[in-house]
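2024-03-11 09:14:02 INFO worker-7 job=invfold-0412 stage=load source=structure_tokens
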């Protein structure tokens, strides 16, 4: 995402060697603060506006991660891909400068921004995000060295859906997954027979962050609180490499989601526009 820059803002985070070692050993790290409370309030205002407007829905960037995403159906886990496309002011900020600095400390100086998304758990009805590995959604022909930096825009705990991780799961291969409820119309994935013994919950204050690798098993519970649970996720990585050993993520091959249909229709309409 070369259009997103952080060069105008100096980062304020320097990880300790202990934190770096814990990340590589356990596959995740929790930070109490990655930005200021003033910036959290600014982010939350933009975030709420984008979800209220259902930004990106017509092109498949906004959809229900946990449901069939039909029109007129209340979403229990709405997501927006690339929120900065719809609010360009999000392309700058201390949260981005610090996230990039953290990524380069953990992945190396060549790490770059690879994507972003926002996941909302509405008050009282927000669904769980089942146990999964992020890489299970991606191209199986590539080898990744990536991370997600998950930033809550309000305090998070077990009651409203904080992050939970299985320490050391980053060292295992991608386990088989299946769509939620085994329904190919649902975008969200669930890890098959995931071993979650010893899982660790990470409650955080607003503006904190968890960082996890592309293979770390993780989960967030439902939102039982009276307030929305907002999370902004930034993805960083080094250049993906072509795998020498082929593999199949068969669970993605038979999906027929409404989100994909909207994205394909938008692509066709764009191609038909006169030059």
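2024-03-11 09:14:09 INFO worker-7 stage=emit residues=275
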């Amino acid at each position: 995402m070369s259009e997103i820059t952080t060069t105008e803002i100096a980062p304020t985070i320097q990880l300790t060697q202990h934190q770096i070692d814990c990340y590589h050993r356990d596959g995740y790290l929790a930070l109490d603060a990655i930005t200021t409370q003033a910036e959290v309030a600014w982010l939350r205002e933009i975030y709420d506006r984008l979800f209220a407007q259902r930004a990106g829905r017509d092109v498949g960037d906004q959809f229900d991660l946990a449901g069939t995403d039909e029109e007129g159906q209340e979403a229990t886990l709405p997501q927006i891909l690339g929120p900065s496309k719809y609010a360009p002011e999000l392309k700058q900020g201390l949260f981005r400068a610090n996230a990039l600095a953290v990524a380069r400390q953990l992945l190396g100086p060549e790490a770059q921004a690879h994507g972003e998304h926002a996941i909302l758990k509405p008050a009282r009805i927000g669904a769980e995000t089942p146990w999964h590995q992020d890489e299970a959604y991606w191209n199986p022909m590539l080898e990744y060295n990536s991370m997600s930096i998950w930033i809550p825009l309000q305090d998070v705990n077990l009651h409203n859906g904080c992050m939970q991780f299985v320490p050391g799961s980053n060292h295992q291969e991608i386990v088989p997954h299946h769509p939620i409820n085994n329904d190919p119309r649902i975008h969200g994935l669930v890890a098959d027979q995931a071993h979650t013994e010893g899982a660790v919950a990470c409650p955080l204050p607003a503006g904190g962050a968890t960082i996890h690798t592309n293979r770390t098993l993780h989960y967030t519970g439902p939102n039982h609180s009276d307030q929305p649970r907002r999370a902004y996720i930034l993805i960083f990585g080094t250049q993906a490499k072509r795998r020498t050993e082929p593999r199949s993520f068969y669970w993605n091959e038979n999906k027929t989601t409404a989100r994909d249909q909207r994205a394909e229709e938008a692509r066709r309409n764009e191609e038909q526009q006169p030059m």
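2024-03-11 09:14:09 INFO worker-7 stage=report msg="Residues 137 and 252 are 7 Å apart (CA to CA)."
2024-03-11 09:14:10 INFO worker-7 job finished
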